[in-house]
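Retry 2 of 3 after timeout on previous attempt. Resubmitting structure tokens to design endpoint.
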């Protein structure tokens, strides 16, 4: 037995000559190609799109870049081939260089096909650079160079690329239009592979706009188009994509069947990467169908094969699906472990839609564990990423998760906000998808109408040609008749020359026979029946009747009633009316469509046209001639078109009814939400009023209690001192001590009563009985003056605070009220902010309706748990410093009730606080 080395030597010995011969043949082909520009063009026509490296080698050896163009059309083609080859080889710079050369010659090119190909290459490069709108413009220029009836493969590909660019811009209706044109061309040239690709793309577009029925229909057409080809991998992928549509429709059994067909084909060709996708898809579909054991089996197969292939990115879906099963089985720690694995893969790939899915999955686990804060964070992350990635299913799941968490935390206000955002987003998506589905139906109908018009135009052209042929035949008949008349006259003139007469008669008969043969041949070619009716004799003669026709070759009769038994009863009255109208000379010709029975017992439609060719001295018609044509197929097409239009109208009505039903449901939900909102607002009002009263009582009781206690003590000391005085035992020391007590008590009583009075004054501001006229004032000066008012109270902090203003324009509002709001916010920053290095920034936006001021400082900020109580009365974190907590509440009331706007808090990106003041811009009339 030979060892391994010997076998390798033998194999190399056998293969080497074959390999060397192949290289020699390639080199010979290139040597032949570079002999002349035309030879190179012929070679590149065959090789440029199939083997870019060989094409580049030929281009390099020919030194195309340094050649001067002699034949403009030829060199424009060569430069375009070079563009294609370098683009396919990934050398975009060189591809662009040769494209520029071809574009520089395009004005001088006389062949539209070459110009179209150059535009096509230019569009491909624009698409590569994500310049989709530019690519669309260029492709439309390329397409415009072809006739409207063209069915060129390159034109079909151009429409397909046009659709790809429209899809990149999310212009689904225009993409469908381009794909319909592309499929029409590929059907005409009978290219099943390209046709299947177009059907697949149409299915994906319909899936995106939510029309799953159309998506499924096109996916099945893609499979049908590929069924008679040997493209096993493409068929397997088509099965897989069709199964995904079945899954979207909830038809899990059909989806599983399709995925298994796809898997069998992938196994037959050893397409292992595709097998992993099939295992994952089967696992997820079985899970959705509540068959968890089968799901785990296929996901284990996916994990094993992906590990063997050392392809970690394929495992992302596997771990995500396994995590969902663990979550379903309430194995929460196992689910977290699987989700961690999946997210590490998605983050590395930067797969945004999958990252969003992973975050929502984590949210579901932590919600199940009742760790609501963590769940809330994950749901919010998933929502933010899914909105950017436009992954609607994940967005809706994230909103639902947020609603569930807020409800579990009894945070009904945020639950309501999330639910409202969810409903709004869902309604917007539904409206967009409905609009796009309606637009797609309109596109289908327009394209169908255009194609039918094209067919009718072609048929009309054939009919006109037949009429021209008929006119030519009639002319020949007339000539033949004239010849016969002349011959008869000649025969009478030459009675004595009987022998010559017989000879001439034979010649005439031969000519007549030949004319009849030509006439019959013309009738056979056009399919028309020629009829001639001698009304004087009462005989109808027909020629070129089909074998299936029940009409006789000869009929006796001189009125239209002679054919009544052959005509459909519903059509005879119209036929008779038009026929008799023409006989009286009221119309130039007679034309009618009606039904006649064939030998199979079926009614066929015919188009009957005729004209009076002879009248007598009283102008009565004595002879009429015409043609009959079978138009059954055309009539059936008209019926189908009407049915299609009726069906389309019914479908639109059904969709309209569905939309109205959903709108009614939404109105009911909105009414329920409004009722809930009213209850929530009333509850909050009552709670706020209770808190305010309790706070006011507490704040006033404290200084008044101090004053009352001090008065009681003072009364007690006065009683003792009076007793000593009356008993003449009052010493100087006792009197001095009593006076100190009086002085100290007076101070306490003054402070307490003053504080209570101040509280009452601030509380009065809550009533907001403001009588102030609107004035116009520069906004910059207004903010500056509000800040300057703090200098007296806070001189040291005023000097150490940086005020940054980006406010412009004039504000027309209640100036004193707005100044008070700004003063409260700035005083708040001075009170709670840092002593040194405080920075306050103000910016503004003004339009016809509102004035918006954004206020930010860099202070210590506000904790999350205190944000909800920020505008509540008597809420403060510095009560030990003598603060009452009414400032922001008063500012909030002034903004909403006096200035007709709102005051809201937001958390800045850095440390500190942020407020947004939005008030009405009172336009003076």
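Retry 2 succeeded. Sequence:
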């Amino acid at each position: 037995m030979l060892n391994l080395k010997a076998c390798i030597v033998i194999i190399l010995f056998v293969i080497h000559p074959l390999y060397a011969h192949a290289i020699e043949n390639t080199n010979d082909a290139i040597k032949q190609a570079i002999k002349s520009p035309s030879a190179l063009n012929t070679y590149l026509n065959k090789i440029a799109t199939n083997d870019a490296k060989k094409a580049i080698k030929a281009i390099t050896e020919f030194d195309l870049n340094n050649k001067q163009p002699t034949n403009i059309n030829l060199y424009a083609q060569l430069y375009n081939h070079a563009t294609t080859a370098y683009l396919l080889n990934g050398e975009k710079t060189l591809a662009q260089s040769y494209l520029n050369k071809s574009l520089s010659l395009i004005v001088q090119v006389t062949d539209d096909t070459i110009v179209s190909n150059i535009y096509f290459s230019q569009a491909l490069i624009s698409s590569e650079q994500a310049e989709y709108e530019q690519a669309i413009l260029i492709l439309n220029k390329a397409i415009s160079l072809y006739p409207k009836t063209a069915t060129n493969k390159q034109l079909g590909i151009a429409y397909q690329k046009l659709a790809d660019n429209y899809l990149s811009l999310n212009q689904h209706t225009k993409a469908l239009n381009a794909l319909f044109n592309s499929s029409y061309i590929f059907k005409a040239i009978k290219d099943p592979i390209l046709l299947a690709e177009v059907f697949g793309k149409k299915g994906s577009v319909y899936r995106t706009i939510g029309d799953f029925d159309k998506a499924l229909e096109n996916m099945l057409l893609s499979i049908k188009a590929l069924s008679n080809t040997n493209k096993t991998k493409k068929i397997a992928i088509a099965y897989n994509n069709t199964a995904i549509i079945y899954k979207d429709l909830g038809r899990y059994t059909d989806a599983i069947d399709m995925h298994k067909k796809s898997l069998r084909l992938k196994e037959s060709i050893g397409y292992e990467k595709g097998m992993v996708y099939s295992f994952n898809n089967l696992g997820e579909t079985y899970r959705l169908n509540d068959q968890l054991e089968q799901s785990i089996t296929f996901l284990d197969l996916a994990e094993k094969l992906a590990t063997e292939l050392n392809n970690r990115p394929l495992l992302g879906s596997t771990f995500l699906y396994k995590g969902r099963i663990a979550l379903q089985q309430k194995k929460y720690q196992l689910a977290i472990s699987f989700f961690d694995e999946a997210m590490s893969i998605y983050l590395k790939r930067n797969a945004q839609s999958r990252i969003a899915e992973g975050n929502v999955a984590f949210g579901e686990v932590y919600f199940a564990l009742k760790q609501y804060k963590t769940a809330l964070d994950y749901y919010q992350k998933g929502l933010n990423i899914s909105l950017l990635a436009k992954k609607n299913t994940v967005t809706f799941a994230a909103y639902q998760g947020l609603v569930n968490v807020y409800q579990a935390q009894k945070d009904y206000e945020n639950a309501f906000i999330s639910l409202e955002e969810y409903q709004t987003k869902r309604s917007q998506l539904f409206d967009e998808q409905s609009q796009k589905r309606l637009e797609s139906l309109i596109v289908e109908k327009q394209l169908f109408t255009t194609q039918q018009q094209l067919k009718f135009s072609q048929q009309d052209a054939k009919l006109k040609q037949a009429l021209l042929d008929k006119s030519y035949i009639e002319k020949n008949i007339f000539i033949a008749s004239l010849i016969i008349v002349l011959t008869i006259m000649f025969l009478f003139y030459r009675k004595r020359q009987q022998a010559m007469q017989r000879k001439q008669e034979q010649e005439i008969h031969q000519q007549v026979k030949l004319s009849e043969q030509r006439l019959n041949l013309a009738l056979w070619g056009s399919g028309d029946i020629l009829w001639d009716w001698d009304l004087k004799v009462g005989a109808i003669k027909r020629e070129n009747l089909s074998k299936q026709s029940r009409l006789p070759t000869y009929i006796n009769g001189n009125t239209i009633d002679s054919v009544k038994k052959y005509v459909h009863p519903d059509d005879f009255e119209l036929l008779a009316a038009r026929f008799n109208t023409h006989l009286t000379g009221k119309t130039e010709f007679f034309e009618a469509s009606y039904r006649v029975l064939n030998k199979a017992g079926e009614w066929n439609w015919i188009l009957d046209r005729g004209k009076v060719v002879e009248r007598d001295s009283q102008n009565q018609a004595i002879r009429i001639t015409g043609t009959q044509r079978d138009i059954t197929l055309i009539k059936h097409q008209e019926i189908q078109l009407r049915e299609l239009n009726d069906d389309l109208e019914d479908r639109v009505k059904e969709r309209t009814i569905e939309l109205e039903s959903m709108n009614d449901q939404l109105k009911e939900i909105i009414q329920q939400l409004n009722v809930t909102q009213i209850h929530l607002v009333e509850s909050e009002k009552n709670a706020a009023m209770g808190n305010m009263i309790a706070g006011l009582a507490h704040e006033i009781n404290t200084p008044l209690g101090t004053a009352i206690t001090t008065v009681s003590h003072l009364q007690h000391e006065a009683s003792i001192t009076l007793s000593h005085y009356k008993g003449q035992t009052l010493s100087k020391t006792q009197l001095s001590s009593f006076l100190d007590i009086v002085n100290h008590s007076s101070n306490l009583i003054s402070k307490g009563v003053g504080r209570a009075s101040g509280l009452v004054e601030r509380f009065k501001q809550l009533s907001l009985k403001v009588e102030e006229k609107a004035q116009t004032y520069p906004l910059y000066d207004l903010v500056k003056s509000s800040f300057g008012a703090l200098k007296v109270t806070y001189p040291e902090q005023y000097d150490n605070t940086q005020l940054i203003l980006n406010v412009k324009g004039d504000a027309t509002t209640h100036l004193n009220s707005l100044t008070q709001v700004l003063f409260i916010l700035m005083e708040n920053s001075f009170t709670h902010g840092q002593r040194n290095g405080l920075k306050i920034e103000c910016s503004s936006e003004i339009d016809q309706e509102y004035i918006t001021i954004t206020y930010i400082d860099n202070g210590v900020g506000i904790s999350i748990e205190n944000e909800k109580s920020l505008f509540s009365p008597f809420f403060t974190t510095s009560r030990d410093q003598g603060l009452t907590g009414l400032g922001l509440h008063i500012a909030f009331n002034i903004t909403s009730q006096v200035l007709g706007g709102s005051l809201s808090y937001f958390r800045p990106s850095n440390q500190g606080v942020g407020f947004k003041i939005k008030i009405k811009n009172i336009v003076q009339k």
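Attempt log closed. The longest helix spans residues 632-726.
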